[in-house]
Design brief:
The protein is of the alpha/beta class. Helices cover about 40% and strands about 20% of the residues. The protein has a five-stranded parallel beta sheet with strand order 2-1-3-6-7, sandwiched between helices. The protein has a two-stranded antiparallel sheet with strand order 4-5. The protein is globular, with a radius of gyration of 18 Å. It holds the Pfam family Flavodoxin_2. Also exhibits azoreductase activity. Catalyzes the reductive cleavage of the azo bond in aromatic azo compounds to the corresponding amines.
Length: about 210
């Protein structure tokens, strides 16, 4: 079983999403002794945002300068990691109602026609079927219900884009209200970790 562990939180040791993805991955490894984990930290690896030059670069990179070639190769490596994964664990904090730009840059490398999707006469078809995605979703406020739910461009986007890739098995382990008070933060983290410890995520990932 191949597991791809992605972190995108920019707060280092203070990041709740990192804490949750680590817990999820640890539980998967404990439950599945055959789990082979590949880790990528999008906040520290300085992945460049997608450019037109990268998209237009020839497949064999002939005549491409070293900097551009390196950027294209990083994108191809990330795509292959994703395609090889059976389960993908994604740390996705909400920043300004959406996802971190680092996480968006990673997703942009995955959205490749002929690899993760294709267009047919009946519309787009996802090509990355059969994967399980577990998202550790963290929010400063409450966006899962009520008036503020209209401002959620984080979880809704992730479910949409993974669905576009053909992945319908997307689970969210959520900790929200983290910035409301110390008690609210402690309660949200405890509830998320309880969900992980109870094995619900593991059953879904197996």
């Amino acid at each position: 079983m191949n597991v791809l562990h992605i972190d995108s939180g920019i707060l280092g040791d203070h990041s709740v999403s990192r804490r949750l993805t680590a817990a999820i991955t640890a539980q998967i490894k404990a439950d599945r002794l055959d789990a082979n984990v590949t880790y990528r930290d999008l906040a520290t690896s300085q992945i460049p945002h997608l450019t037109g030059a990268q998209i237009m670069a020839p497949a064999d990179l002939a005549g491409v300068d070293a900097k551009l070639a390196a950027e294209v190769k990083i994108g191809r490596e990330m795509l292959e990691e994703f395609l090889a994964a059976d389960t993908v664990v994604v740390g996705a904090p909400m920043y300004n109602f959406s996802i971190p730009s680092q996480l968006k840059a990673w997703i942009d490398r995955l959205a490749v026609a002929g690899k993760t999707f294709r267009y047919t006469e009946s519309g787009p078809e996802g090509l990355a079927k059969g994967k399980k995605v577990i998202v550790a979703s963290t929010r400063g406020g409450h966006y899962s219900a009520g008036p503020a739910s209209a401002m959620d461009h984080q979880e809704a986007y992730l479910k949409t884009v993974f669905g576009f890739f053909g992945i319908t098995d997307v689970e969210f382990v959520r900790a929200e209200g983290l910035n409301l008070s110390a008690d609210s933060k402690q309660f949200a983290i405890a509830e998320a970790e309880k969900t992980i410890a109870e094995g619900t995520v593991l059953r879904l990932a197996s």
